[in-house]
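Collaborator request, handled under Task 6.
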Amino acid sequence: MKLNIIFKSVFLLLLIMSIQLSFAQQKDPLEGIDVTKILMHLDWYRMNYFDAKNKEVVVENNKNRVVFMGNSMTQSWMNYMPEMFDNQNYVNRGIGGQTTPQMLLRFRQDVLELKPKIVVILESSLGKCVAHSFKPTLSRYSIAFCCRIFLPRP
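Structure tokens returned to the collaborator:
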């Protein structure tokens, strides 16, 4: 009887060790895959697009900051007038292809947290055409509402 229990225990121990060994020899299923790039495609709203640049902005240093928010038209100003945005007085937060609902979702972190005195929002017809789940008018009013609540009044 004791021999039977010892035999079963040894067999179970060997079985567990062989299972662990087989798992240890398996390759990582994500090996060679850049997960960051994959996750970027899942971030439809591009919430982290300006994270690094937002950290560079010294919020307390500028009382007359102007933040430009929009889509590719706003973003392209960086190419045509780079000297305008090489300081912290004028901050460009345009992302190509953005719709109004997408801008609304990133509005707080990319605009309001920079504490601008003025916000310039350039929303094109793309926001009206692509925003299936939101009424564009509602989105525009939502952005206006955020500005009214969170931005200081003169």
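The cover message to the collaborator said: "Residues 126-138 have pLDDT under 50 and may be disordered. Residues 35 and 41 are 10 Å apart (CA to CA). Please let us know whether this matches your experimental observations."
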